[in-house]
Known about the structure:
- The protein is α+β, with helices and mostly antiparallel strands.
- The chain folds into two domains: 3-136, Creatine Amidinohydrolase, Chain A, domain 1 (3-Layer(aba) Sandwich); 141-354, CATH 3.90.230.10.
- The protein has helices spanning 3-25, 35-42, 67-73, 85-96, 110-119, 131-137, 141-162, 171-184, 246-265, 272-285; strands at 29-32, 50-53, 58-62, 78-81, 100-104, 124-128, 189-190, 195-198, 219-224, 226-228, 231-232, 235-240, 297-299, 306-311, 324-327, 330-333, 337-340, 343-347, 352-354.
- One zinc ion binds next to loops.
Amino acid sequence: MTEEMEQVADVTRRLEAIRARLNEEGLDALLVQSAVNRRYLSGFTGSAGALVISPERAWIFVDFRYVEQAKAEAPAFELVQFDAFLPRLREVFQSAGIERVGFEAAHVSVAASKSLERELPDVDWTPTVNWVETARGIKEPEELATMQQAIDLADEAFEHILGYLEPGRTEKEIALELEFYMRRRGAERLAFATIVASGPNGALPHAVPTDRELQRGDLVTLDFGCVVDGYASDLTRTVAIGELDGRGRELYELVLRAQLAGIQGVRPGRLGKEVDADARSVIAQAGYGEHFGHGLGHGVGLEVHEEFPRLSTRGEVELEPGMVCSVEPGVYIPGWGGIRIEDLVVVTSDGCRVLSRSSKELLII
Ligand code: ZN
Ligand code: ZN
């Protein structure tokens, strides 16, 4: 198959999932305005536009700037060019006899939903939640292959940065070096703002890199990732500079044990909150439960934080083969510092496979 035919095949499979939902809910069409969902369903990577999917047809609405791109990237869709979106949408709905329409409640502002009701008063608008996100939760083999490239690049960047870490380097310099490395090797962008947190700054799970210089005895948490062909990676390692005291060693071993327990717990049929508990109980039993204040993991794909699945105390989603998530316990002690270890895993038929390859042995550099 040519690349374009493969793309059409993917899109057909994805549209079928949406059409099954339309059928179940008795709707005539789904209006898709979220950029990520638009890309997932159509292949169109432009930053503005909308999709309408009915049981038999699929349209992509774009303005003048995106006509050529939409033709090239979304060949399975009928192209509708607009100057004013809502009047054009009304025309298409009328000509196709579309009356009951689902919209993405999580991605349409209150103001925008009021405009829909005002400009298309004859349409029966129904809020939908997570139709596309649920489908996105199960990764197809091609998606996994793309994501693996982003993950491999993060692994390479980690190996590279180990040779760069030394007393006197600032957190900002280290973050920049990681970012340049990934961009130079083909990342289209960063997956999120890089975290480099040294010494006491490590106590903040989402620390922003500062001008603080690394010192002997510091633990440094590096949490970073990149995007390749739309798919994100997310990796965290914590390393020691020069030496590490007894408490640091003890806590590193604890977080690693919790992380391995979390990975061990990932398999089909389990709920996100059960896996979270597997890791959390290890940390709690050692007396550090109150120092692990965030969820164990999140789904990853076209976005670095996805709901399907979420591993946390509120994770009600049942794990299924093909889901990809992070497993990232941490311990954070104000005034002292913190440790977090994060890998991405894919749920398999009987457990999971770890996708990141960076060593988790305690590294003292
Ligand atoms: Zn991360
Ligand atoms: Zn993460």
